[in-house]
Amino acid sequence: MTAKKGLSKRSKGKVKKMEEAKVGVFLSDCGGQIAKILDFEALTGFLKTVNGVALVARGSEFWRGQGLQAIVDAVKEKKINRVVVAENIPKISEIAITKAVEEAELNPHLVEVLDIKDHCAWPHKDTPKEATEKAKAMLLAAVEKAKLLEPIEKTEFPAVKSVLVIGGGIAGIQAAEDLADMGFQVYLVEKEPFLGGLAAKAVRFFPTDDCAICIQSPTSDLKTVTQTSRKCVYRSGFSEIPNLNVLTNSKIVKVEGAPGNFKVTVERKPRYVNEKKCVACDLCTSVCPVEVPDEYNAKLKTRKAIYVNKPLVYPPVYAIDAKACKFHECAKCVEVCPTKAIELDQKTEHLTLNVGSVIVATGFREYDPSVIKEYHYGEYPDIVTHLELARMLDAFGPTNGTVVRPSDGKPAKRIVFVQCVGSRDRRWNPYCSSICCMISLKHATLIKSAFPDTDVTICYIDIRTTGREHEYYYERAREIGVKFVKGRPAEIVHDPATNTLVVEVEDELLRRLLELEADLVVLATAMVSSENARELAEILGIELDQDGFFKEYNAKLRPTETKRRGIFLCGGATFPKDAPTASLHAHSAAVKAAKFLMNGKIVKDLKVAVVNEDYCGDCEFCPVTCPYGAITLEPKGEGHFVARVSELLCEGCGVCVGTCPVGAIELRHLKPSQISAQMKALLSINGTSKPLVLAISCSECGNAAIDSSGMAMMSYPANVRVLRVPCTGIVQVQHILEAFKAGAQGVMVVGCKPDGCHYEVGSQKTHKKVELAKTLLKAYGIEPERLEMFNLVYIEGDKFAEAAKMMTERVEKLGSLQLA
Ligand code: FES
Known about the structure:
CATH class of the largest domain: Alpha Beta
Strand order of the largest sheet: 13-8-7-21-32
CATH topology of the largest domain: FAD/NAD(P)-binding domain
Helix content: 25-40%
CATH superfamily of the largest domain: FAD/NAD(P)-binding domain
Mean pLDDT: 93
Oligomer: single chain
Number of domains: 6
Low-confidence stretches: 6-16
Radius of gyration: 33 Å
CATH architecture of the largest domain: 3-Layer(bba) Sandwich
Bound molecules: FE2/S2 (inorganic) cluster
């Protein structure tokens, strides 16, 4: 992908040459509050002696108003080219300060913001002299780092305003429609000949018993569509949005390119019926001699080799089943078709789509319960799944809405539902599929309402009704006579003499064994990920979770994103969902995709990793380690290769840096020299009677925990100094050794929880490195207890304060560290 670099003229100019650093330091005393603890005269005096500092200013605040203007003036008039600001709430103030600095024509990456309130004044308020000495060390570290900062330019990458949606169930349709409605070019790709997915078979959805195939109508000015909120798929008009292209019988076989500019190869199988010519007159089926079991109708009836799924269907045109059709041997349909729509010589096509982003909406499917031998599914015909029952309950279905025994077609008068079949069971799927209880309640209620004489029993472990109005649905089922037995059936047996099924179950409430006679047993199976999820995940370069569903970037905060930029998820692709939740998810994914592409370009600060090719070569650590797939290996000379970093994909976490065995990779925004300079500065001034402890913390949860302990004025000793890095994943064993060499008596590594690292793997990898470093320390004759990793989150500021005290006491007890 071609990227335009150096958008800002001033940035571009500054990139060319490193000029001598003229550091301006701006000290906020937070309206005088922290001046009651820190000696600002001493701090100002100290800073004036630091090499490279050209200006020291003190004020009430520097992130807005006059304070911010003072920074701008210093940059413009006094030609300050590095800015250090000691400010409150650095995360927020940094945004305003860097923006103002950029407007003053200084590269915004030449700014260093630190927090001497929450990281110094408040936690050390009882020892003001020590706090002032620590503040000096912190300011010195910021100045030393600032002197080594280099400008970082922005780059822009083109983004095609076009989206591929994979999966034509209700989530995929909704996401496609939303995006097309917003003006994006959309391709909706469905592997089956018809859209609708599971919803098309499910007929009704709880809790309203409304049509399953109902979606929100487009709001585009389509002449044929009224602006009501919802419509059946086939009459919603979504397919008539000019910029929405529906590709049925199609699947994704290759994805190349980069976010914003993917090249997708779609394999489109022939339908053998020209969609533009077919008028759905049905003459073809009347002459077709081939009958096959109708999978759409749970094989409870047959269909012809040329067929259409009625009545909820899009596109409303016929398709030929290539496995069943005799083609030119027969060709009767060709003869009778009045519009010449049947084209038996159609071939598989490969289309290439250029899209900026991709939404995966491949849904879920019923688990095949035939593997659960004690339930004999597939062996006894009167044991069915919910989807098979749903087809019977469909007035247009194989039994015209009556519930029968598939074995003999007689009405089923005694029906037993079995819950959690293949779910909440470690033998098959340990998770709860979340919607099966409601599906059973829906079907039991529909049956009992339509056929009150039917005896309906639900065997359950727990009935889970967590959605809005769902509990009322459960109450209604009880009121109309649905029976409930708490217990997971041990076996379903068949009495051939009476053609009756017997469900053996222990009623856990009444503590007795029951043998429930049934004409029909309905298995509420687990819902599992779509059939080709793994293959598609590999093609797209995204992950599946431990249960085989597509893994979102963050379940709480980024539930429709993946780790691969530009690829989004929605609906049951991430986990089984009911229709309202799938719809909500689809809207969310559509908004995310739209936001990603709306400007037609992706603008990015190049805070990324860079490779030194002179050192790099012939190992595969960083490509394997990078959580974002941003590093590839490229040949360099015969039999050799070097790492290449994608500027677009790199998130600048530094996990690769922490992995490289030869130091050949570094971050542009935190170079090894900057880490060393800060480390030395932080450990160059003690000012307390206690041994110095260096806390290397990630900028995310680790630093947030340190912030919160300060904000809550929790005290810990001032000998603890914090060095912030993007992610603890950047930490190398040599950093730890270097810290001890620079004067630390103890080292704390403070990161996110192992499974909560903002860059996925950093915290876990660092844990291993810390263990390795302990072994090395021991070998060097240094007590390994001097090193410890802590995994914290924002609300655990108290734990940081405790850890800081504990480490201080521990190294005090160990005594002074003497390095040769
Ligand atoms: Fe906190 Fe990775 S971001 S440890």
